Protein backbone atom coordinates (compact mmCIF):
# COMPACT_ATOMS: atom_id res chain seq x y z
CA UNK A 1 0.00 0.00 0.00
CA UNK A 2 2.71 2.42 -0.90
CA UNK A 3 2.05 5.16 -3.39
CA UNK A 4 3.17 4.34 -6.92
CA UNK A 5 4.26 0.85 -5.92
CA UNK A 6 4.21 -1.79 -8.62
CA UNK A 7 3.67 -5.09 -6.71
CA UNK A 8 5.72 -6.97 -9.29
CA UNK A 9 8.86 -5.12 -8.19
CA UNK A 10 8.66 -5.80 -4.44
CA UNK A 11 8.25 -9.56 -4.40
CA UNK A 12 10.67 -11.43 -2.11
CA UNK A 13 13.33 -13.23 -4.10
CA UNK A 14 14.13 -15.78 -1.39
CA UNK A 15 10.62 -17.18 -0.87
CA UNK A 16 9.37 -20.28 -2.71
CA UNK A 17 6.02 -22.03 -2.93
CA UNK A 18 7.52 -24.89 -0.91
CA UNK A 19 8.45 -22.47 1.88
CA UNK A 20 4.96 -20.96 1.84
CA UNK A 21 3.46 -24.46 1.96
CA UNK A 22 5.61 -25.32 4.97
CA UNK A 23 4.82 -22.08 6.75
CA UNK A 24 1.08 -22.44 6.14
CA UNK A 25 0.95 -26.07 7.33
CA UNK A 26 -0.28 -24.95 10.75
CA UNK A 27 -3.49 -23.71 9.10
CA UNK A 28 -4.32 -27.11 7.62
CA UNK A 29 -7.07 -27.86 10.19
CA UNK A 30 -8.88 -24.66 9.18
CA UNK A 31 -8.42 -25.50 5.51
CA UNK A 32 -9.75 -29.03 6.07
CA UNK A 33 -12.82 -27.55 7.74
CA UNK A 34 -13.32 -25.17 4.80
CA UNK A 35 -13.09 -28.07 2.36
CA UNK A 36 -15.80 -29.91 4.32
CA UNK A 37 -18.01 -26.84 4.42
CA UNK A 38 -18.12 -26.20 0.67
CA UNK A 39 -19.02 -28.56 -2.19
CA UNK A 40 -16.02 -27.60 -4.35
CA UNK A 41 -12.48 -26.63 -3.40
CA UNK A 42 -12.50 -23.40 -5.40
CA UNK A 43 -15.09 -22.00 -2.98
CA UNK A 44 -12.45 -21.72 -0.24
CA UNK A 45 -10.18 -19.33 -2.17
CA UNK A 46 -11.24 -16.14 -0.37
CA UNK A 47 -10.77 -17.65 3.08
CA UNK A 48 -7.45 -19.24 2.13
CA UNK A 49 -6.17 -15.87 0.93
CA UNK A 50 -7.21 -14.38 4.28
CA UNK A 51 -5.18 -17.06 6.08
CA UNK A 52 -2.22 -16.25 3.86
CA UNK A 53 -2.51 -12.56 4.66
CA UNK A 54 -2.88 -13.31 8.36
CA UNK A 55 0.44 -15.16 8.30
CA UNK A 56 2.50 -12.81 6.13
CA UNK A 57 0.58 -9.58 6.84
CA UNK A 58 0.28 -9.13 3.07
CA UNK A 59 -0.23 -11.35 0.00
CA UNK A 60 3.02 -12.10 -1.84
CA UNK A 61 2.55 -13.48 -5.33
CA UNK A 62 4.29 -16.75 -4.55
CA UNK A 63 1.69 -17.14 -1.80
CA UNK A 64 -1.06 -16.64 -4.37
CA UNK A 65 0.34 -19.67 -6.20
CA UNK A 66 0.02 -21.69 -2.99
CA UNK A 67 -3.56 -20.46 -2.47
CA UNK A 68 -4.43 -21.45 -6.03
CA UNK A 69 -3.00 -24.90 -5.42
CA UNK A 70 -5.05 -25.34 -2.22
CA UNK A 71 -8.22 -24.07 -3.89
CA UNK A 72 -7.81 -26.06 -7.13
CA UNK A 73 -7.88 -22.97 -9.35
CA UNK A 74 -5.35 -21.54 -11.75
CA UNK A 75 -2.81 -19.01 -10.44
CA UNK A 76 -4.25 -16.48 -12.90
CA UNK A 77 -7.71 -16.91 -11.36
CA UNK A 78 -6.38 -16.48 -7.82
CA UNK A 79 -4.37 -13.43 -8.86
CA UNK A 80 -7.49 -11.89 -10.41
CA UNK A 81 -9.34 -12.32 -7.11
CA UNK A 82 -6.55 -10.56 -5.22
CA UNK A 83 -6.56 -7.75 -7.78
CA UNK A 84 -10.33 -7.30 -7.44
CA UNK A 85 -10.65 -7.14 -3.65
CA UNK A 86 -8.82 -4.17 -2.14
CA UNK A 87 -8.82 -5.80 1.32
CA UNK A 88 -6.01 -8.06 0.16
CA UNK A 89 -2.72 -6.21 0.61
CA UNK A 90 -0.43 -6.55 -2.38
CA UNK A 91 2.34 -4.63 -0.65
CA UNK A 92 3.63 -4.79 2.93
CA UNK A 93 2.17 -2.47 5.54
CA UNK A 94 3.31 -1.39 8.97
CA UNK A 95 2.36 -3.06 12.22
CA UNK A 96 -0.57 -0.64 12.53
CA UNK A 97 -2.60 0.06 9.41
CA UNK A 98 -4.47 3.36 9.75
CA UNK A 99 -7.37 3.65 7.33
CA UNK A 100 -9.22 6.95 6.93
CA UNK A 101 -12.47 7.14 4.97
CA UNK A 102 -12.45 9.68 2.15
CA UNK A 103 -16.01 9.30 0.84
CA UNK A 104 -18.46 12.18 0.86
CA UNK A 105 -20.08 11.73 4.27
CA UNK A 106 -16.72 11.62 6.06
CA UNK A 107 -15.24 14.27 3.77
CA UNK A 108 -17.74 16.86 4.95
CA UNK A 109 -17.00 15.82 8.55
CA UNK A 110 -13.30 16.63 8.17
CA UNK A 111 -11.53 13.52 6.90
CA UNK A 112 -9.11 15.56 4.78
CA UNK A 113 -8.05 17.52 7.86
CA UNK A 114 -7.40 14.26 9.72
CA UNK A 115 -5.37 12.85 6.83
CA UNK A 116 -3.30 16.04 6.63
CA UNK A 117 -2.71 15.93 10.38
CA UNK A 118 -1.62 12.28 10.26
CA UNK A 119 0.72 12.93 7.34
CA UNK A 120 2.36 15.71 9.34
CA UNK A 121 2.54 13.89 12.67
CA UNK A 122 3.77 10.61 11.15
CA UNK A 123 6.05 12.26 8.60
CA UNK A 124 4.69 10.28 5.64
CA UNK A 125 2.28 10.71 2.77
CA UNK A 126 -0.94 8.77 2.45
CA UNK A 127 -0.07 5.33 1.10
CA UNK A 128 3.32 5.17 2.82
CA UNK A 129 4.83 3.45 5.85
CA UNK A 130 6.85 5.15 8.58
CA UNK A 131 10.60 4.38 8.55
CA UNK A 132 10.29 2.39 11.80
CA UNK A 133 7.77 0.05 10.17
CA UNK A 134 5.04 0.85 12.70
CA UNK A 135 2.40 2.86 10.84
CA UNK A 136 0.95 2.75 7.34
CA UNK A 137 -1.57 5.43 6.38
CA UNK A 138 -4.08 4.82 3.59
CA UNK A 139 -7.20 6.44 2.20
CA UNK A 140 -10.16 4.08 1.83
CA UNK A 141 -13.76 4.15 0.72
CA UNK A 142 -16.80 3.87 3.00
CA UNK A 143 -16.15 2.11 6.32
CA UNK A 144 -19.83 2.15 7.41
CA UNK A 145 -18.93 4.60 10.20
CA UNK A 146 -20.85 7.55 8.77
CA UNK A 147 -22.68 8.32 12.02
CA UNK A 148 -19.43 8.72 13.94
CA UNK A 149 -17.33 10.06 11.06
CA UNK A 150 -14.78 10.71 9.89
CA UNK A 151 -14.34 6.95 9.86
CA UNK A 152 -10.94 5.77 11.08
CA UNK A 153 -9.82 2.16 11.50
CA UNK A 154 -6.61 0.87 13.03
CA UNK A 155 -5.95 -2.71 11.96
CA UNK A 156 -9.60 -3.05 10.94
CA UNK A 157 -10.94 -1.84 14.30
CA UNK A 158 -12.67 1.50 14.78
CA UNK A 159 -11.06 3.90 17.22
CA UNK A 160 -13.10 5.18 20.13
CA UNK A 161 -12.29 7.62 22.93
CA UNK A 162 -10.59 4.92 25.02
CA UNK A 163 -10.91 1.55 23.30
CA UNK A 164 -10.97 0.11 19.83
CA UNK A 165 -14.44 -0.67 18.50
CA UNK A 166 -16.14 1.19 21.41
CA UNK A 167 -17.90 4.08 19.69
CA UNK A 168 -20.33 6.28 21.62
CA UNK A 169 -22.97 7.71 19.32
CA UNK A 170 -21.67 11.23 19.87
CA UNK A 171 -18.01 10.41 19.23
CA UNK A 172 -16.27 11.91 16.21
CA UNK A 173 -12.49 11.37 16.00
CA UNK A 174 -10.38 14.51 15.95
CA UNK A 175 -6.67 15.18 15.65
CA UNK A 176 -6.14 15.03 19.41
CA UNK A 177 -7.79 11.58 19.56
CA UNK A 178 -5.48 10.29 16.84
CA UNK A 179 -2.43 11.70 18.62
CA UNK A 180 -3.40 9.84 21.80
CA UNK A 181 -3.88 6.58 19.89
CA UNK A 182 -0.56 6.90 18.08
CA UNK A 183 1.22 7.54 21.38
CA UNK A 184 -0.46 4.47 22.91
CA UNK A 185 0.48 2.27 19.97
CA UNK A 186 4.08 3.45 20.01
CA UNK A 187 4.26 2.56 23.70
CA UNK A 188 2.67 -0.82 23.01
CA UNK A 189 5.20 -1.55 20.25
CA UNK A 190 8.10 -0.65 22.53
CA UNK A 191 6.88 -2.85 25.37
CA UNK A 192 5.88 -5.85 23.25
CA UNK A 193 7.85 -6.06 20.01
CA UNK A 194 6.44 -8.64 17.64
CA UNK A 195 8.10 -10.86 15.09
CA UNK A 196 8.77 -8.90 11.92
CA UNK A 197 6.97 -10.74 9.15
CA UNK A 198 8.18 -8.38 6.44
CA UNK A 199 10.67 -5.62 6.03
CA UNK A 200 9.39 -2.24 4.81
CA UNK A 201 10.40 -2.91 1.20
CA UNK A 202 8.67 -6.24 0.91
CA UNK A 203 11.29 -8.91 1.61
CA UNK A 204 10.17 -11.69 3.91
CA UNK A 205 12.13 -11.63 7.17
CA UNK A 206 12.29 -15.10 8.68
CA UNK A 207 13.38 -16.05 12.21
CA UNK A 208 13.85 -12.50 13.50
CA UNK A 209 12.37 -10.71 16.47
CA UNK A 210 11.06 -7.19 16.74
CA UNK A 211 9.94 -4.51 14.34
CA UNK A 212 12.73 -2.68 12.45
CA UNK A 213 13.22 -0.15 15.26
CA UNK A 214 13.60 -2.80 17.97
CA UNK A 215 16.98 -3.80 19.35
CA UNK A 216 18.41 -6.80 17.54
CA UNK A 217 15.89 -6.77 14.69
CA UNK A 218 17.35 -7.62 11.31
CA UNK A 219 14.67 -5.84 9.28
CA UNK A 220 16.02 -2.64 7.80
CA UNK A 221 13.96 0.57 7.96
CA UNK A 222 12.84 2.13 4.74
CA UNK A 223 15.24 4.82 3.53
CA UNK A 224 13.72 8.31 3.61
CA UNK A 225 12.88 9.64 0.17
CA UNK A 226 13.34 6.33 -1.61
CA UNK A 227 12.06 6.26 -5.18
CA UNK A 228 8.85 4.33 -5.81
CA UNK A 229 9.00 1.35 -8.09
CA UNK A 230 9.15 2.01 -11.84
CA UNK A 231 5.75 2.06 -13.51
CA UNK A 232 4.91 -0.80 -15.84
CA UNK A 233 4.23 1.69 -18.61
CA UNK A 234 3.91 0.52 -22.18
CA UNK A 235 5.17 3.52 -24.15
CA UNK A 236 4.87 3.78 -27.94
CA UNK A 237 5.84 6.43 -30.50
CA UNK A 238 4.39 6.66 -34.02
CA UNK A 239 5.70 9.13 -36.61
CA UNK A 240 3.50 10.63 -39.34
CA UNK A 241 5.65 13.09 -41.23
CA UNK A 242 7.16 15.42 -38.64
CA UNK A 243 4.37 14.70 -36.11
CA UNK A 244 5.22 12.22 -33.34
CA UNK A 245 2.31 10.68 -31.43
CA UNK A 246 3.29 9.29 -28.02
CA UNK A 247 0.89 6.94 -26.23
CA UNK A 248 1.16 4.78 -23.13
CA UNK A 249 -0.84 2.43 -20.92
CA UNK A 250 -0.66 0.99 -17.39
CA UNK A 251 0.26 4.25 -15.66
CA UNK A 252 0.42 3.89 -11.85
CA UNK A 253 -1.52 5.92 -9.32
CA UNK A 254 0.50 9.11 -8.93
CA UNK A 255 0.29 12.90 -8.97
CA UNK A 256 1.50 13.45 -12.53
CA UNK A 257 3.35 11.89 -15.45
CA UNK A 258 6.27 13.70 -17.06
CA UNK A 259 7.12 12.98 -20.70
CA UNK A 260 10.80 13.56 -21.48
CA UNK A 261 12.82 13.79 -24.69
CA UNK A 262 16.51 13.23 -25.38
CA UNK A 263 18.30 14.34 -28.54
CA UNK A 264 21.73 12.94 -27.62
CA UNK A 265 21.07 9.24 -27.24
CA UNK A 266 19.82 9.43 -23.66
CA UNK A 267 22.74 11.38 -22.18
CA UNK A 268 20.53 14.31 -21.21
CA UNK A 269 16.77 14.69 -20.96
CA UNK A 270 14.39 17.63 -21.08
CA UNK A 271 10.73 17.81 -20.16
CA UNK A 272 8.41 17.65 -23.14
CA UNK A 273 5.08 17.59 -21.32
CA UNK A 274 3.60 17.19 -17.85
CA UNK A 275 0.20 15.49 -17.80
CA UNK A 276 -2.24 14.02 -15.33
CA UNK A 277 -2.17 10.36 -14.26
CA UNK A 278 -5.24 9.59 -16.38
CA UNK A 279 -3.80 11.05 -19.60
CA UNK A 280 -2.46 8.57 -22.11
CA UNK A 281 -0.95 10.62 -24.92
CA UNK A 282 1.38 13.47 -25.83
CA UNK A 283 2.69 14.96 -29.08
CA UNK A 284 6.00 16.18 -30.47
CA UNK A 285 7.56 17.22 -33.79
CA UNK A 286 10.75 15.96 -35.42
CA UNK A 287 12.40 17.17 -38.60
CA UNK A 288 12.73 14.64 -41.40
CA UNK A 289 15.51 12.17 -40.61
CA UNK A 290 16.04 13.46 -37.07
CA UNK A 291 15.67 10.91 -34.23
CA UNK A 292 14.86 11.35 -30.55
CA UNK A 293 14.39 9.15 -27.49
CA UNK A 294 11.33 9.39 -25.25
CA UNK A 295 10.43 8.15 -21.79
CA UNK A 296 7.73 8.73 -19.17
CA UNK A 297 8.30 9.17 -15.43
CA UNK A 298 5.69 8.98 -12.65
CA UNK A 299 5.79 11.62 -9.92
CA UNK A 300 4.08 11.34 -6.52
CA UNK A 301 4.37 14.73 -4.83
CA UNK A 302 8.09 15.11 -4.04
CA UNK A 303 9.01 11.55 -5.04
CA UNK A 304 10.03 10.46 -8.52
CA UNK A 305 9.78 6.95 -9.91
CA UNK A 306 12.32 5.30 -12.12
CA UNK A 307 11.53 6.10 -15.77
CA UNK A 308 9.71 3.83 -18.17
CA UNK A 309 11.42 1.95 -20.96
CA UNK A 310 12.82 4.25 -23.66
CA UNK A 311 11.32 4.39 -27.15
CA UNK A 312 12.86 5.98 -30.24
CA UNK A 313 11.19 7.74 -33.15
CA UNK A 314 12.44 9.36 -36.37
CA UNK A 315 10.82 12.15 -38.37
CA UNK A 316 9.54 11.03 -41.75
CA UNK A 317 8.99 12.85 -45.06
CA UNK A 318 5.73 14.73 -45.20
CA UNK A 319 2.86 12.72 -46.65
CA UNK A 320 1.86 13.52 -50.27
CA UNK A 321 -0.71 16.29 -50.58
CA UNK A 322 -4.28 15.17 -50.66
CA UNK A 323 -6.08 15.57 -54.00
CA UNK A 324 -8.10 18.77 -54.36
CA UNK A 325 -11.88 18.35 -54.19
CA UNK A 326 -13.48 18.19 -57.62
CA UNK A 327 -10.23 17.52 -59.49
CA UNK A 328 -10.21 14.20 -61.33
CA UNK A 329 -6.74 12.85 -61.86
CA UNK A 330 -7.87 10.35 -64.52
CA UNK A 331 -7.24 11.36 -68.18
CA UNK A 332 -10.19 13.12 -69.81
CA UNK A 333 -11.41 11.74 -73.12
CA UNK A 334 -11.33 14.19 -76.05
CA UNK A 335 -14.68 15.41 -77.33
CA UNK A 336 -13.27 15.77 -80.91
CA UNK A 337 -13.98 12.66 -82.97
CA UNK A 338 -10.89 10.97 -84.30
CA UNK A 339 -10.57 10.54 -88.05
CA UNK A 340 -12.21 7.36 -89.26
CA UNK A 341 -10.86 5.09 -91.93
CA UNK A 342 -14.27 5.30 -93.67
CA UNK A 343 -14.14 9.08 -93.89
CA UNK A 344 -12.42 10.22 -97.09
CA UNK A 345 -9.76 12.91 -96.89
CA UNK A 346 -10.82 16.44 -97.75
CA UNK A 347 -11.20 17.04 -101.50
CA UNK A 348 -11.78 13.37 -102.34
CA UNK A 349 -15.43 13.07 -101.55
Outline the structure in words:
Strands 7, 8, 10, 11 and 12 form a five-stranded antiparallel beta sheet that branches. A four-stranded mixed beta sheet has the order 2-1-3-4, covered by helices on one side. With 349 residues, the chain is α+β, with helices and mostly antiparallel strands. The protein has helices at residues 17-23, 28-37, 45-56, 61-71, 75-84, 104-107, 111-122, 175-191; strands at residues 96-101, 135-140, 152-154, 157-158, 234-240, 243-249, 256-262, 270-275, 281-285, 291-300, 303-304, 311-314. The chain has three domains: 7-84, NADH-quinone oxidoreductase subunit E (Arc Repressor Mutant, subunit A); 96-191, Glutaredoxin, CATH 3.40.30; 234-314, Immunoglobulin-like (Sandwich), CATH 2.60.40.10. It is 24% helix and 19% strand. It has eight helices and twelve strands. Residues 195-231 have low confidence and may be disordered. Helix 3 (45-56) packs antiparallel against helix 4 (61-71) and helix 4 (61-71) packs across helix 5.
Task: Briefly say what this structure is.
It is built from 8 helices and 12 strands.
Number of strands: 12
Low-confidence stretches: 195-231
Superfamily at the CATH H level of the largest domain? Glutaredoxin
Question: Helix content range of the residues, please?
Answer: 10-25%
Q: What is the number of helices?
A: 8
* CATH C-level label of the largest domain: Alpha Beta
The value of Rg in angstroms is 31 Å
Described by strand count, sense and barrel closure, the largest sheet is: 5 strands, antiparallel
